[in-house]
Amino acid sequence: MSVRLDHETGILTGPGVHETARRVKDLAGVFRDETARASRDQETVLYRVQAWEPQPEGKPGAVCLATTFLEPGKVGDEYFLTRGHFHANEDRPEMEVVISGRGALVLMGRDRVTRMEEMAPGTVHHVPPGTAHRVANTGSETLVFVSYWASETGHDYAAIREQGFSARVREVDGRPVLVPVS
Ligand SMILES: [Fe+2]
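Above: inputs. Below: predicted complex with fe (ii) ion.
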């Protein structure tokens, strides 16, 4: 038995594949409207990640991949999103390939300049070194995308937890707009 990525569904199966779920309760302080987040069912799953990491995080020698299934919805006028992170090893890049759904890849450099790339089935996105990244689901169905990174990359969630991104993907006049944090 080997690891298999289903290119129709994004489902990853096989030995060593592990799955994590992020629920509303796991994203405290992430959304602009914390009151709206806190008032929702805390057990609702916002996204699931199926990952295969041939080497443990931080140890060199492997390419890792993961499929993220990000549900549609909003907290206030802000689309459901992933927490986002910098890489612990600053010079390590990443790649995202979209399977299905619509979304926005939010990229922010250490200079806190933030930009957004539209995600749609088949689009490929390069996350340059030194760039924080998160994904928002701007569509009406589950956004499914596959990420590839090197095993020595490491994840730094603390900087984003403390300072956030400098802009948020919000619905303005019925469409997603990257709005600077005031
Ligand atoms: Fe990453």
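Residues 85, 87, 94, 133, 149 surround fe (ii) ion (CB under 6 Å).
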